[in-house]
Sequence to fold (424 residues):
Amino acid sequence: MSDLINKLIEDKSNSLPHTSSEIKHIVDISHNSNHFDDKIILWLKSVYKNGMNRSETINYTDAIISSGDKLNFDLNGYIIDKHSTGGVGDKVSLILGPILAACGCYVPMIVGRALGHTGGTLDKLESIQNYNGLINLDKFKNIVKDVGISIIGQTNEICPADKKIYRLRDLSDTIDSFPLICGSIMGKKIAEGIEGLVLDIKTGNGAFMVDFNQANKLGEFLKSIGSEFNLNVDYLVTDMNQPLGIYSGLLCEVKESIDFLKNENQSKDLFELIYKLGLRGLNMAGIDNGEQKIRRVLEDGTAYEIFCKMVHAHGGDIDKAVLLPSASENIIANSDGYLNIHNTKSLGMSIDALSLGSNNDNYKKFDPQSGFKLYKKHGEYVNSGDRIAKIFCSDHSILSKGSFIFKKSISILKELPTLYKVIH
Fold:
């Protein structure tokens, strides 16, 4: 077995293609044994460096799907999901999922944990006391049927190979590889049994795809792979040159999501993105007057009610989702000028620094009260002494580290910096 793995590593290091059976072998080993993790990491690095062709990527995605179960729903409505390639402050799934469900769609959503500098949707939901995102598939299907949406993490039933490889990609810094991204995203989404998928491909200094052309290429690539599995895929390329919305972290993003669903405190960038992605999803589902429907389910509270029902169905206590960090520090402007957020990725790492947890064999565990709030956005004019942001967590002793990273990620310029559109 070891000899075959070594051969596949050597082949890929020499840019030689794998057969379908060879890819299945690698994927099977990755989740059936921990003895070859070092070898799998070497293979991931060779894929990261030399890539896979279209046929290999299809076979890799199929092997990821085949490592677990594939769901089938019998529902009277369009079954859809949304996925983002990741960023800082990206709480869109928490908001858009309930909106789509309130508009008549069914949303079975399997999400990941933190990857690199990006926050994980499952981690955010688990910051709500007693929220169980690791329920069995029968309960998952029942919640989707009864509530309209259920958001869970990867279990051993759905794409277990990806669950393992996902962690190894994070450890080996092989995250932004097209075929590996494709296998992870499309594998889980196809296994969900959905009919349509809306993708939010992030680009900018806080995204895995820094360049727009690269992000657009990924979107087309994912769309084409989806078609091989009879999955309707649409995508938008959106900005991640600054954190999305006002809050970035865990429970603080849940708070912002709740406010949005209550039709309160909706930041301009988050509002535009939610509506644009929502319209793509509703158009895909064949639902007319999408913008009016989105506005209505926010104004009449239907979307928020569905979010609350979902949290309750997962055992969560939404009344205890209260942001009360015991330690905080204001980030103050030290001169007059325009705020320039030049390293959003680093801002994401400041949340890691503010967390109380550490890596273990399964995932990163964060302090649910950790994060930051922006009072000023990129390109806004500030005066010396103005409050730019507030960082917070549950431990005064680690504030200085988070503050140091945050301050290195921003600057104040005399000239207006380059401004970015929310939707490219």
Q: What stands out?
A: The radius of gyration is 21 Å. The chain is about 45% helix and 15% strand.
